[in-house]
Amino acid sequence: MTDEMIPVHEKDSMPFECCSENKCFNECCRDLNQVLTPYDILRLKRNLGISSHLFLKKYTSLHYGPGSGLPIVTFKPNPATGNECPFVTPKGCSVYEDRPGSCRLYPLARAITRDRETGEIDEYFALIEEDHCLGFGKQTNLTVRQWMDGQEVGLHNLHNDKLMELISLKNKILPGKLEGAQSDQFYLALYDLDEFRRQIFDHNLLADLGLPGSLLESLKNDDEALMDFGIGWVKNMLFGLELDLKG
Hints:
By secondary structure, this protein is an alpha+beta fold. The protein is built from nine helices and eight strands. The chain folds into two domains: 4-159, no CATH class; 162-239, no CATH class.
């Protein structure tokens, strides 16, 4: 059998269950080439109680899209462990409550389209059947949507869709390869949140913007607010779009 992608609707039944009783348990956590989104990194660094800078240095590798120049962050490969996830254990995931969105969705693939006028998002799904996975064919009495709700993937999708919108804007407004400072700004504001915060408050990165006190307070204490602001800042720096300065 070869890997297959089978289109499914959110109201279809979800014939899949991952559990420790499956003989393939943890196999999907090995031989990884897993891309991490900014929200994945936010959740993981907070789970571990370390800064984003230390998390990125210790656990990830940085690549750049060959055509876009956009930063791509993946788990750092370790051939000695079969390139397994650094957080997998014999009993399962040690950061399960804050596991990446792609782990939550597996074995689903998700794609979106966005209406240019209304901004409304349509979702499309497919099941990825891989040879090593023995979780298929099990009846859970759940629909695809109910199964996703149980994986608590909604917040990940919400934040990851903001990233996809930013990338779509980049491809439309600034086609071609980001170079130097542009790519560095993208990486700083989205992936290395704690360093972005340090640059704002210790090195006056945004001093010329005259940010209101209420917004500064939010950026100092709220990772999600900082990440959302970072997306707006990147849109302003790269595309000249107006930056929302409301507190």
